[in-house]
């Protein structure tokens, strides 16, 4: 019966991959989106024993090897590679070229994002498209007085009429894939404090595109379709073998 | 947590629905490419998570891009364009004030300055009877030619907002103030960031045809891809249902 479950595990694992692909495809046009990486790994291996050639009273068996019991999904991980930058011309559209994340305050606590579509709320606070507050380098909200659109320098300093009004809080993580997990609305939650150095250049009037590659997604979808189909065939074959075994052995 | 077919189909559906909404925005932009003072819209896609489960995408807002459109010369002396961030204020039939960047004005039978829909412009002054020509100066002064002499008939003021992208779209190329945009700060053109008025000119829409076409085709591709995900998930579901033959 091991084979039946191994084949079924492949169907389930591919369903999860399909879910991750669907999510990546749905977010191809979400600026700052980082794709979900899907990977598979072997499930448990079970030892295979065979009785001794000269079966004795001891009933001893020989270990002849092991058999895989199927496949499972690795824990979901995030691909933090940079997306391409796209010019938008809007003064409050920002992108970071190189390492670093914008610090934002959400109802669930401080989060990090690469999505630089900012705007002003009714009190003049700099907010994300979801209304989360963008934080400065001291973790405070950024409030812009007056109506003039700020100029943003490469270091992330906001200038209004040539004077510094705030400095964007940019968090750099030495290993983002290890430190960050996916959180609400295109943000990431960190386990610890930002521990990296060398923040990238902030570009005003640009947005970072999602790092989802359309051709790669389609290729992965073909793989999923074929291996799901193959696993389904295997389940049927195993089932037929079992049925035959039961009927033959029964009529013997 | 195990993944269900419905969940994947919902993600694919969200991918398609958001693209359809965005298509509306692009069609609106394209159909208004020749509308003076029109500001293009942008659909903001956002990732959706349901209790930390992957949930596809959603639309978080439709944002109007308030960048300056190019100015074009015309022959009509009441074609006014604003170079800067201000808006003309108009009175709606219900008495509310609406704001617009569309400066194609006319004189109506009562010699009021009205827009193409007949809504009067809010300004201090009056065009006198027998006016042969009108000219609006950059500072908003309305000059009238009568019996061979120019005289000032009044002044046009412009409104300016702390956060113009927070304005509410009324339709007919008009905007209404909201809590998010802040109150209209009305004043003389040229002061603060209101900008100056240019007579015999109109501001063209800030829609860029090439950019919209690029957005349109990439949108079409991503719609098709979500559709493919949906179809393939459906096939997988069918295979799962037919696991047991006969």
In short:
The complex is a heterodimer of chains A (252) and B (246). Chain A has 3 helices and 21 strands.
Tell me what you see in this structure:
The complex is a heterodimer of chains A (252) and B (246). Chain A is an alpha+beta fold. Chain A folds into two domains: 2-28 and 40-73 and 213-251, no CATH class; 85-208, no CATH class. Helices cover 27% and strands 31% of the residues of chain A. In chain A, a hairpin with a 2-residue loop joins strand 15 and strand 16. Chain A is elongated. The model of chain A has no long low-confidence stretch (mean pLDDT 89). Chain B is an alpha+beta fold and 246 residues long. Chain B folds into two domains: 5-66 and 207-241, no CATH class; 71-203, no CATH class. Chain B is built from two helices and 18 strands. Chain B has helices at residues 5-31, 209-241; strands spanning 41-50, 53-64, 71-73, 80-83, 88-91, 97-100, 105-107, 113-115, 124-125, 133-136, 141-146, 149-155, 158-160, 168-171, 174-176, 185-187, 196-199, 201-203. In chain B, the strands form eight sheets. Chain B has a four-stranded antiparallel β-sheet, with no helix packed on it. In chain B, helix 1 (5-31) packs antiparallel against helix 2. The radius of gyration of chain B is 25 Å and the shape is elongated. The two termini of chain B are 31 Å apart. The mean pLDDT of chain B is 91.
């Amino acid at each position: 019966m091991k084979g039946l479950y191994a084949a079924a595990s492949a169907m389930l694992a591919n369903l999860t991959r399909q879910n991750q692909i669907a999510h990546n495809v749905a977010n191809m046009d979400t600026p700052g989106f980082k794709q979900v990486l899907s990977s598979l790994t072997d499930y448990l291996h079970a030892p295979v024993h065979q009785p001794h050639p000269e079966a004795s009273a001891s009933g001893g068996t020989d270990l002849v090897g092991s058999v895989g019991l199927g496949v499972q999904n690795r824990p979901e991980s995030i691909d933090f590679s940079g997306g391409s930058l796209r010019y938008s011309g809007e003064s409050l559209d920002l992108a970071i070229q190189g390492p670093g994340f914008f610090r934002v305050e959400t109802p669930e606590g401080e989060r990090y994002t690469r999505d630089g579509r900012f705007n002003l709320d009714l009190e003049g606070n700099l907010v994300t498209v979801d209304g989360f507050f963008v934080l400065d380098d001291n973790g405070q909200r950024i409030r812009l007085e007056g109506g003039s659109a700020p100029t943003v320098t490469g270091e992330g300093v906001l200038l209004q009429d040539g004077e510094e009004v705030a400095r964007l809080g940019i968090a750099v993580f030495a290993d983002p894939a290890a430190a960050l997990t996916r959180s609400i609305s295109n943000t990431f939650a960190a386990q610890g404090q930002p521990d990296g150095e060398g923040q990238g250049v902030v570009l005003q009037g640009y947005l970072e595109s999602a790092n989802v590659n359309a051709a790669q997604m389609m290729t992965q979808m073909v793989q999923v379709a074929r291996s799901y189909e193959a696993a389904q065939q295997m389940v049927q074959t195993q089932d037929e073998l079992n049925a035959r075994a039961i009927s033959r052995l029964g009529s013997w | 947590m195990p993944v269900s077919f419905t969940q994947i189909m919902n993600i694919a559906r969200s991918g398609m629905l958001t693209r359809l909404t965005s298509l509306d925005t692009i069609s609106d932009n394209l159909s208004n490419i020749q509308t003076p003072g029109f500001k293009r819209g942008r659909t903001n896609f956002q990732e959706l998570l349901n209790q930390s489960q992957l949930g596809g995408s959603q639309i978080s807002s439709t944002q109007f891009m308030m960048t300056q459109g190019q100015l074009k010369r015309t022959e009509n002396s009441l074609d006014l364009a604003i170079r800067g961030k201000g808006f003309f204020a108009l009175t709606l039939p219900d008495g509310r004030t609406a704001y617009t960047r569309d400066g194609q004005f006319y004189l109506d039978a009562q010699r009021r300055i009205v827009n193409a829909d007949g809504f009067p412009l809010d300004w201090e002054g009056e065009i006198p009877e027998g006016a042969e020509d009108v000219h609006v100066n950059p500072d908003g002064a309305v000059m009238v030619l009568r019996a061979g002499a120019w005289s000032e008939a009044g002044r046009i003021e412009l409104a300016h907002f702390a956060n113009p992208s927070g304005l509410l779209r009324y339709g007919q190329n008009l905007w209404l103030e909201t809590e998010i945009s802040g109150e209209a700060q009305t004043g003389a053109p040229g002061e603060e960031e209101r900008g100056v008025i240019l007579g015999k000119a109109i501001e063209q829409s800030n829609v860029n045809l090439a950019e919209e076409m690029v957005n349109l085709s990439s949108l079409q591709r991503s719609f098709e891809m979500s559709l493919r995900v949906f179809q393939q998930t459906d096939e997988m579901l069918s295979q799962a249902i037919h696991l047991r033959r006969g």
